[in-house]
Amino acid sequence: MTASDTRPDGIPLPGRSGIRPRDRRIVEAIALVCAVSALLVLQWKDEDGNVRKNLKPPEKVTTVAEGQIGELVGAQWKIYGRATGEPLGAKPQGDVTELRLKLAVRPSDAASAKAVGSYGLGFRLHDGDGHEWSATALKTGEPRAGVAMGFTVRGTVPRAKADELELEIQAPKTARKPGGAQPSLRFSH
């Protein structure tokens, strides 16, 4: 047996420089904790940037006063009718109703007519409390440049909120410029 085998960890060996083995293990543990923490922070920041960039683009909402005309994807939009009725189905559903909005749309050129006729348009109904309901739209014809056409937007909503809901139309994702905001049009009521 040598002297290095019989000496406990806390006593430095003669002729050896540096820190004691116990202190070295403590420093290594602290360095490991710091390295893992830094790695987790970097990974979180990287994922946060990807989510912001790819999943949920910022929105640019243009609000249109009641009875006014708004512009989205190069077309003019206006609500000219609002009605409620029973939702489609075999039996009445109590506290819900179907909100029907009539829209007039006039694309200004061929590109806006293509955007208006695309499947990427999104329709949502909003209340003042932050709730939203999806809606579907039916076109009355094929969009053509300079020619007005109609949309009927329908959504099943709570009966008590039907008169205060606002319509929001989101442009197709193809209309979004790289790095830009997702344009949408909100009709206040």
Automatic annotation (TrEMBL):
- The annotated region (Disordered) lies at 167-189
What's the name of the protein?
Answer: DUF4352 domain-containing protein
Q: What is the scientific name of the source organism?
A: Actinomadura darangshiensis
The organism's taxonomic lineage, starting at the top: Bacteria, Bacillati, Actinomycetota, Actinomycetes, Streptosporangiales
